[in-house]
Amino acid sequence: MAPIPGSGLAKGLAVTLRTMTKKSVTAQYPDAQPDLPPRTRGVIGLFEENCTVCMLCARECPDWCIYIDSHKETVPAATPGGRERSRNVLDRFAIDFALCMYCGICIEVCPFDALFWSPEFEYAETDIRDLTHERDKLREWMWTVPAPPALDPGAEEPKELAAARKTADKLAAQQTPPATEPHADEQARASEEPTRPQGDSKQQTDQPEPGQEGRG
Questions:
Q1: Cα of 72 vs its chain's centroid, Å
Q2: Rounded to 5 degrees, what are φ and ψ at 203?
Q3: CA-CA distance, 153 to 161, in Å (whole number)?
């Protein structure tokens, strides 16, 4: 059956009329800020106190957009006769967001929780060279990182908390004095009293009872 001429145009106009009568849901940004989910991949924040300059994030980045500079410092021995140690000190930590593809590999491979996702996204620049942000700016974004979501009430307790609670209970049990058994003091006094010789008891049994003296 051949379609009726103009039926497609009529259907299109019907969709247009239905849309025109509905209320608009467009959010007028920037007057109305979007309600973003907490796990939005907006920008990467740096908690530099946790960074040990292990370079894992820079090595695993597929775009090579992370730049890290550091130097070594000698830490004196903590105890007399101890050995001096060396540690890495972070000098520069920068991310070029013009190259970043927001894959999150750097955050996943960081073993010391120094990198986090922040939902902030308003960092556009007129010059592409200004999209390379240093550690000071990355640290400011760290304070916009939302708190982690709560665990499922039916989920198992994390192994770290279970191990810590078990250790605390063990230490508390060691510090608590053992409970004394009932009548322990009486048993101790009884053990200290001198035992009566067996001859005394036999001599007592051989003595005549009162009133039986002079009989026989």
A1: 29
A2: -65, -35
A3: 15
